[in-house]
Amino acid sequence: MAAAGAAATDLEVVRGKRAALFFATVVIVLGLPLWWKTTETYRAPLPYSQISGLNSLKLRLMVPVTVVFTQESVPLDDQEKLPFTVVHEREIPLKYKLKIKCRFQKAYRKALDHEEAALSLGNIQEAEAMLAEPSEQAEGSLTVYVISERCSLLPQDMMSYIGSKRMAVVRGIMHREAFNIIGRRIIQVAQAMSLTEDVLAAALADHLPEDKWSSDKRRPLKSSLGYEITFSLLNPDPKSHDVHWDIEGAVRRYVQPFLRALSAAGNFSVDSQILYYAVLGVNPRFDSASSSYYLAAHSLPHVINPVESRLGSSAASLYPVLNFLLYVPELAHSPLYIQDKDGAPVATNAFHSPRWGGIMVYNVDPKAYNGSQLPVRVEVDMMRVMEVFLAQLRLLFGIPQPQLPPKCLFWGPKSEGIMTWELDRLLWARSVENLATATTTLTSLAQLLGKISNIVIKDDVASEVYRAVAAVQKAAEELSSGHLSSAFAASQEAVTSSERAFFDPSLLHLLYFPDDQKFAIYIPLFLPMAVPILLSLFKIFLETRKSWKKPEKTD
Amino acid sequence: MAAAVRIFLLLLLLLGPGGWGQAEPPRDSLREELVITPLPSGDVAATFQFRTRWDSELQREGVSHYRLFPKALGQLISKYSLRELHLSLTQGFWRTRYWGTPFLQAPSGAELWAWFQETVTDVDESWKELSNVLSGIFCASLNFIDSTNTVTPTASFKPLGLANGTDHSFLRYAVLPREVVCTENLTPWKKLLPCSSKAGLSVLLKADRLFHTSYHSQAVHIRPVCRNARCTSVSWELRQTLSVVFDAFVTGQGKKDWSLFRMFSRTLTEPCPLASESRVYVDITSYGQDNETLEVYPPPLTTYQDVILGTRKTYAVYDLLDAAVVSNSRSLNIQLKWKRPPENGYIHYQPAQDRMQPHLLEMLIQLPANSITKVSIQFERALLKWTEYTPDPNHGFYVSPSVLSALVPSVVAAKPGDWEESPLFNSLFPVSDSSSYFVRLYTEPLLVSLPTPDFSMPYNVVCLTCTVVAVCYGSFYNLLTRTFQIEEPRKGGLVKRLANLIRRARGVPPL
Fold first, then answer.
1. Which run of H or E residues covers position A65?
2. Can you tell me the distance from the alpha carbon of A354 to that of A340, in angstroms, rounded to the nearest whole number?
3. Residue A538 at interface with chain B, using a CB cutoff of 8 Å
4. How far is A329 from chain B (nearest CA, A)?
5. How far apart (Å, rounded) are the C-alpha atoms in residues A193 and A167?
6. Per the CB 3.0–4.6 Å rule, which of A497, B117, B388, B421 could disulfide with B81?
7. Quick check: A274 contacting B, CB < 8 Å?
8. A375 preceded by cis ω (within 30°)?
9. What is the pLDDT of residue A6?
10. CB atoms within 10 A of CB A448
11. Which N-terminal residues, if any, form the signal peptide (chain B) (predicted)?
12. Segment among A138-152, A484-498, B3-17, B147-161 with least mean pLDDT
């Protein structure tokens, strides 16, 4: 009876043990993965290593230069060596993680027949027109024609000529070291027309440490897919001035040709408005000597803000807006002049604010007040105004005045107001800036996602990141093979994709999920469930160890 | 640059005389109007209308030039291919029973409806973007307009302007009744006016007065209209309207005489030089049988009579562009006087500001003899902020007692005695007239029970659920893992031992 009872008890004990073990197994095999799976945040894989690789990217900007030798430009035995290619490479020293190298690839060849014919003309402009005709040159490339030493195409004291299309003319030399000497002249000209350190430094101004390129350096407009240009006529005193401006004609005549030339750098839209009763934020001072009013240079920063609230934001697009204001001062404050830092009136009576736009003060001719009653009808001389605004537009886009090598003939831009090689320079700078921006965005996104593990990474965010990385790499490749326009397009895609990934709203969904709330929900449920399981497991473990030790003792 | 300048000059010589020189008629025009209507209830309604007409065809691409028409709205029309746009932001409700029929009523909150051009392919997408952009322009929460509160009416909301086809799939309509209208909505609305708020009628638009009213409705209506009588080409019309109803008791301190200065705390000084018409109309139609209930100052130079909303009305007209109107006194302050005040009494009401000051309502009433007068105030129960509840929130909140101060006519005329000499209990209140005495009575304080939220509900739910789960699980677990054995019954229970104890004491053998 007792034995049967003990056997039954043993059976019960074993069954209980098995049940406890089964519970533990179910919890570990089923419960834990279920809990893990349901509380997990979805994180698509990202190319972290490639992103960190972008930081040590080495950019190599290639400028293809075609050098064309006419007859008698170099000694005959040198001409025999043509055609051949020379590469001139140079690192651009910038305090920046991107290492930028500039590489001029000079392809030397003999002149073709029609080029000979063109260069033997008497007038450099006709020659340029004739040379530009047959084929359009690729963006970023340059063609340098070497003419004979005594050729009359250039005035005798001039050594070189820089054209408005991507071409230049350099005088040759009859010398044993002809190629070396000419090579140096070509590099001089090419650096004036193509990439320089200044251009890149200005483009990377946001990414460089402040000390080197301090804030008073010109900061060009940030690169964007498009720009909106708004011309505003401010008439604070419509009771005395009835101002008319022919903005339609002015835009058609002066602004559109310039923007058409610049259209490779982005989309442009232009509009204009007239604002009445819009005043500057600063009261001008009276200067009794000249009985005129003036705005001192230090007060100019305070002029913009009050006006800006009236300008109205651009409702229809997300592109940056460039404002050009023409301010006709009220009768009580005219004439009004802008003074520079030394107190002398500025010749153009205008100033510009980087990345914002420009303001020009247009004084009404005092003769207009004689004998006529208010309001006085004022016709704005649009040519005077547009000259200033176009010059400001060039500055805002970061197109500096060309720096010419000595003894160089230069005519200045045609009616578009911009030379094609200046446009190329802008595209180089914008491509590099875009690459730097995209790299920074991707790096900070990768850092952020690595640091905060709560953030959900959706598939579309991940695909944008992949696209941005691929576009950065493609742009770098295209730059090093000298295809400027496709490099620029790729760099724009890189910026767009990287920013779309960075600002995707889905990244913010689960960002705030504090730990104390997690514990408040978990403890009342998980503690009572986990304690019995753990205790019985512990008990089973102890008993097993005891039963293992027993047989040892009997030995 | 020298070459460029030379080319420009050449162009100018060629194009100059044709381009400008001849005075073309102005392509935009602005009309502004203010209608002041004394309402039957004694309140005063003021309705502003600013109408900008723009003689231009808007094209989607290309350069556009704006003069009087605001650029922000013009860009909107061309970008979203709008045919019509109507947006109103309203605070309060137009009480037709007391105030009569309005010129233009709008629902409280925000109302937006728009007709799109037939060229729009995805109307819903454009509508979504449009409401988002408008919410940015007018600082209103129009971005909450989505498919859940947008409808496409098929019979009402026909286009108000020129329309050749009315395919209702290009119409969208939405109302946000919760939208609160405030200064931040008025400021962008004022910025759209050509004269801003510097000259003309817009000088009167002072935010702190306009929102101190019982009804405030501002609206923007854009529609295409005929440019000329034969309607050969289309112009765009922007109408900005603003209607307010000034409460006689809140702003007028109980008096019903009005002036522009009292309503807007401004007067009209100069017309907007850009406006081609700038007028103030004052409704001087007499109420009731006897005319001459109203008097307007300065006396109007012209009056205007017409049938408006089914009744014959007379308006006094002040034309600001007429030099005689403003120049007399350098500023125009139109005043209205009621010759015979419609009713007697004094009511002073100072509305409460949340967490700042309580309501104050003072009324001077002459009570008829043997009558019962009831003064009742409606109130709403609202939830407080959760930190503002007292430790015993269910007790309720006290409203302080009302005070009744009265001069009661005395039954017997008192002797005019020396005030210093009389007993102290009789000289607390100074009495000027011996035929009446002064009483001040107080009512009981009112205990209002406010709704109280369940402060601990979420955590209770969590704890309860977890406890239930844990208890079920625990007993189940125990049932399955414990070992059960049958215990041998022990030797006797408590009763048996007790019985044995008694038996031993008795000397009887135990059980």
1. strand A58-69
2. 17
3. no
4. 16
5. 9
6. B117
7. yes
8. yes
9. 72
10. 12
11. 1-23
12. B3-17
What pLDDT is attached to residue B481? 79
Element (H, E) at B271: none
Over the range A60-92, which residues count as b (16 or more CB within 10 Å of their CB) and which as e? bbbbbbbbbbbeebbeeebbeebeeeeebeeeb
Q: Is A315 on the interface with B (CB under 8 A)?
A: yes
Structure tokens belonging to residue A65:
């230069």
Q: Which residues of B touch A269 (CB under 8 A)?
A: 63
The DSSP 8-state label assigned to residue A31 in this structure reads I
Residues from chain B that touch A532, judged by Cβ atoms under 8 A, are 474, 477-478, 481
Record the tokens describing residue A162, joined without a space.
Answer: 């820089």
Q: How many CB pairs under 8 A join A and B?
A: 144
Cite the beta strand spans of A215-330 per DSSP E: 226-235, 241-244, 267-276, 285-287, 292-295, 321-327
**Mean pLDDT computed over A199-219:** 65
| Upper half-sphere CA count for residue A387 (Cβ side, 13 Å) | 15
- Pairwise CB contact (< 8 Å): A536 & B75: no
What are the pLDDT digits (tens) for A344-362? 888 889 998 888 899 999 9
What is the distance between the alpha carbons of residues B238 and B220, in angstroms, rounded to a whole number?
7
Across the interface, whether the CB atoms of B63 and A271 are under 8 A apart is answered yes
With bands split at pLDDT 50, 70 and 90, how would you rate the model's confidence at A498? very high
A459 confidence band (pLDDT: 50, 70, 90): very high
Query: Any idea which residue has 């009056």 for tokens?
Result: B303
The SS3 of residue A369 is helix
- The length of chain B in residues reads 511
Q: Are A528 and B481 a contacting pair at CB < 8 A?
A: no
* Residue B219 identity: A
The owner of tokens 């009661």 is B408
The sign of the dihedral angle between the CA atoms of A142, A147, A151, A156 is positive
- Mean predicted confidence (pLDDT) in A57-68: 86
B196/A524 touch (CB, cutoff 8 Å), yes or no? no
Which of B24, B466, B467 to probe the A interface (max A CBs under 10 A)? B466
Those residues whose C-beta lies under 8 Å from the C-beta of residue A114, and which sit 6 or more positions away, are A130, A134
Which residues of A fall within a CB distance of 8 Å from B483? Answer: 9, 12-13, 15-16
H helix runs in B363-489, sequence order: 457-481
| CB atoms near residue A140 (< 10 Å) | 26
The tokens describing A56, both together, are: 């040590």
Residues of A in contact with B70 (CB under 8 A): 273, 312
Token pair of B160 as six digits: 């108000």
Distance CA B77, CA B58 (A): 8
Q: Which two tokens stand for residue A398?
A: 């970061």
Give the Cα separation of B395 and A138 in Å (integer): 85
Looking at residue A279, its amino acid is V
Query: Hey, is B324 helix, strand or coil?
Result: helix
Strands (E), B66-129: 82-91, 109-116
- What distance in Å separates the CA atoms of residue A467 and residue A47, rounded to the nearest whole number? 11
Longest alpha-carbon distance in chain A:
138
At A342, is the pLDDT very low, low, confident or very high (cuts 50, 70, 90)? confident
How do the domains of chain A map onto residue ranges? 15-41+513-549, 61-202, 226-397
Q: Check whether B164 has a pLDDT greater than 80.
A: no
Establish if B64 touches chain A: CB-CB under 8 angstroms. Answer: yes
Other beta carbons within 10 angstroms of residue B373's beta carbon come to: 8
- B437: its two tokens: 């005495």
The B residues from 482 to 511 touching A (CB cutoff 8 Å) are 482-486
Nearest Cα neighbor of A116 from A130, A103, A102 is A130
What span, in angstroms and rounded, lies between the C-alpha atoms of B84 and B224?
7
The C-alpha atoms of residue B189 and residue B134 are separated, in whole angstroms, by 11
Residues of B in contact with A253 (CB under 8 A): 8, 11, 15
Cβ distance of A238 and B469 shorter than 8 Å = no
